[in-house]
């Protein structure tokens, strides 16, 4: 099979292809695993974190990809063979121990043995991949492959961030950055909180215009002052500057949720400008989203199957994964990017 694989860590730039197109054997599913024939795989900013070493793979070479849609091709021992042919998704959560206090309380995303698809185990930038059967997710038939893929991470982690906001209908919600995750969460927020007004801070004017088309009442640059004071902000950027700017604009008792696995190191010196009175006082809350649970993924897929939750998708063949990643790094974003594998 062919796979786009990471052999060396390094900066993603227009002058360097971060991944190599390799021909490797089709993997064999171990006991408890399934083999998925991949149809498509979403491209996520976390792949940049893996390639550039902020959350490095467990081994090299590694096949990235954790927003995978495909069909079960084969099963290992102790897996019901009746699932062969079923369409499933594989998300960021590749496995967890199932026994620790975090797992047994529904917080498997915090499990010390959490394994990530495409980082700790080979992912979906390939024609085939394996995953434990209980960590594969049935995909509702009403969802197209390329629409379902971004829901597995951009959607599911975004849903988790929205819940952590503890939003009340009628409060004002803001986003910093408006890429794959934020454009889906905005749609979720409009469904669950119809009286909530939504603001978007983004450097890119294309992202700002897109946000307005999806229902935001205002969009502007990170430095601009919005007409409303947000009660909650979801940060989806790779930088620290929008976090500090957002904390300063939060209403008393407001909640800032950072929806990112890592922040790029270039802006960390901005944290020296953290001021207690401006950024934190009056019971403002700053928290992060860590990974994702299976329940998050399945709730997102179920929601998308019954309400209007439509990703804006740019499609690339697998062999153009490097182009998609380089564009993502450069900020050329409108919705989500998805790789397609083979002919459907």
Please explain how this structure is put together:
The protein has 344 residues and is α/β, with parallel strands linked by helices. The chain has two domains: 2-152 and 311-340, Alpha-Beta Complex (Quinone Oxidoreductase, Chain A, domain 1), CATH 3.90.180.10; 156-288, Rossmann fold (3-Layer(aba) Sandwich), CATH 3.40.50. The chain is built from ten helices and 17 strands. Strands 3, 4, 5, 8, 9, 16 and 17 form a seven-stranded mixed beta sheet that branches. A six-stranded parallel beta sheet has the order 12-11-10-13-14-15, sandwiched between helices. Strands 1-2 form a two-stranded antiparallel ribbon. α5 links the parallel β10 (172-176) and β11. The longest helix has 13 residues, at 180-192. The radius of gyration is 20 Å and the shape is globular. The mean pLDDT is 93.
């Amino acid at each position: 099979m062919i796979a786009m694989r990471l052999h060396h860590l390094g900066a993603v730039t227009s002058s360097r292809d971060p991944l190599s197109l390799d021909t490797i054997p089709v993997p064999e599913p171990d006991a408890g695993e399934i083999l998925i024939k991949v149809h498509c795989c979403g491209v996520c900013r976390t792949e940049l974190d893996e390639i550039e070493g902020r959350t490095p793979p467990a081994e090299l070479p590694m096949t990235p990809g954790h927003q995978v849609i495909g069909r079960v091709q084969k099963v290992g021992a102790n897996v019901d063979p009746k699932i062969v042919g079923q369409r499933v998704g594989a998300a960021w959560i590749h496995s967890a121990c199932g026994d620790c206090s975090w797992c047994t309380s529904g917080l498997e995303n915090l499990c010390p043995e959490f394994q990530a698809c495409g980082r700790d185990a080979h992912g979906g930038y390939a024609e085939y991949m394996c995953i434990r059967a209980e960590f594969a997710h049935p995909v509702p038939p009403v969802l197209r492959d390329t629409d379902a893929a971004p829901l597995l991470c951009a959607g599911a982690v975004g849903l988790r961030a929205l819940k952590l906001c503890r939003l009340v209908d009628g409060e004002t919600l803001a986003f910093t950055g408006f890429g794959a995750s934020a454009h889906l969460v905005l749609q979720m927020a409009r469904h669950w909180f119809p009286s909530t007004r939504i603001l978007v801070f983004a450097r890119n004017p294309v992202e700002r215009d897109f946000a307005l088309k999806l229902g935001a009442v205002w969009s502007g640059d990170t430095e601009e002052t919005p007409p409303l004071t947000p009660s909650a902000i979801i940060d989806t950027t790779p930088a620290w500057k929008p976090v500090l700017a957002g904390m300063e604009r939060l209403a008393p008792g407001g909640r800032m949720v950072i929806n990112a696995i890592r922040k790029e190191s270039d802006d960390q010196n901005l944290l020296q400008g953290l001021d207690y009175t401006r950024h934190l006082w009056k019971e403002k809350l700053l928290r992060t989203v860590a990974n994702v649970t299976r329940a998050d993924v399945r709730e997102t897929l179920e929601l998308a199957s019954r309400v209007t939750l439509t990703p804006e998708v740019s499609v690339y063949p697998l062999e153009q994964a490097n182009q998609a990643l380089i564009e993502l790094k450069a900020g050329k974003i409108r919705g989500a990017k998805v790789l397609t594998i083979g002919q459907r």
